[in-house]
Amino acid sequence: MSVCPKHILWLDETVTNIKGYHPSGISDQDKCIACGNCATYCVLRESAVKCVHSFAMCGYCELCTGFFNPSPNDLTTAAENVLCPTGAIVRRFVEDPYFEYTIDQNLCIGCGKCVKGCKMFGNGSLYLQVIHDRCLNCNQCSIAAACPSEAWVRVPAARPHLWKKVT
Description:
Blueprint: E1 2-3, E2 10-11, E3 26-27, H1 37-41, E4 49-53, E5 89-95, E6 98-103, H2 113-121, E7 126-130, H3 142-146, E8 152-153
């Protein structure tokens, strides 16, 4: 046993709980409302929750609503035009009129601003996911407790991610 970085939880360092489930929660993308709690409630200094991009679902749009503010001044990567406060989404020209969007997980804070924009006006290819090699596996997830939409479910240790399904 050890103490979490914020000294509020005792951490169980086992990989799975007694029933074989991963100790940490995982976001159910259909229930997630991208409220921002993932960025602020994690006991880690930098949240274990990051934005993930489902390339199979992406429309590679020039005007990506997960990348740009709802009313951008211009379709450029200037800070005043983009949603991400840390610049974690990288936009790369593919061919006219298509752009590829990738997530730099080192910069992503899990705030969900891009996810909210993508769900409201896009196809939902951006979503939040627990990155389990970052998670403390404390089995007392403070993000799950603070989640207003109850978007956290336990998953088998053999399958620690709920990937977004292409429909």
